[in-house]
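Second attempt. The first submission of FecCD family ABC transporter permease had a stray character pasted in from the spreadsheet, which I only caught after the job came back as garbage. Lesson logged: always re-copy from the clean sequence file. Corrected sequence (343 aa) follows.
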Amino acid sequence: MTGERAVRLGRFSRIVTPGDIRVAGLVVVVLIVLVLASLMVGDQLIPLDRVVRAFGPEATRLDSMVVVQWRAPRAFAAAVFGACLGISGAVFQSLTRNPLGSPDIIGLNTGAFTGVLVVISLGGMGYAAVSAGAVVGGVAAAGLVYLFAYSSGLQEFRLIIVGIAVSAFLGSINSWLVVSSELDAALRAAVWGAGSLNGVRWPQLLGAGALALALVALVPWLARRIAQLELGDDAAKTRGVRTEPVKAVAVVVGVALTALVTAVTGPIAFISLAAPQIARRIRRRSGGFDPVGAALVGAVLLAGSDLIAQHAIPAASVPVGAVTVCLGGIYLVYLLVRESDRS
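This time the job returned cleanly.
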């Protein structure tokens, strides 16, 4: 195709077209607009020029506090965490070769909630304890799914079915833990389980961002191998791909990206599910592992959802997880209607 060119990053290479570049540029512009809107809009509207100055030495003390200390961590966290969830969804959907193969569906968020409920039930109160419980719970759920889905190799369809079963089982445990907990503990768990960016500050964002950067550094290595896996295990083996180790690394990266977001914000649903699919549709590609597109769309979805969560209802702020669930439900209905029209 005219205008195609190869983009290389180490041993990773990808063919891109002018259309790909235009779409990516448009999504980046939308993301920048959403982040700037998050920095400007609030109880007090701050004009763009003052927002820009707030990051410099000429900023007033009030603007610096409101923009840099209060609004910026949340705005940037929405973009970073949305990108992490988008990449995680792309990894699992490519690995399972199924659009339902996302952390939401296969039980990672439910497992993280179980870990938090256990910590709170045991009297854990601090941010570190809750975050550790979320990570351990999510990783343990992923381990169970991987163990039960493994049969002479990781079976993609079994991974989804087992994930749904484990999610349902853990969901029943979560309900029992909430009902049997004291009222204060149950309320704390419910607030965390809704998924929110309210408590994000620079230390949490910088810590999670550093871990995310280390994980994303593995994505170029995975991309070429996942592209081979999408052709089938036998075809990948003939091309020299060690299929099971690659699948194991892919699962670890996908789980870790979801876990670090969940540990900070609580479970945020549907970003991982929808971002890779939307990225494919706007690029008009039927398949292929696209971590860059999924990351950009995930960032836009979470940044936009958080803007809605903060300002859609006057004098009230709802958890961003509630907004993503609503938007995700609308998106799934749209897909069902579209597929029924085609049949």
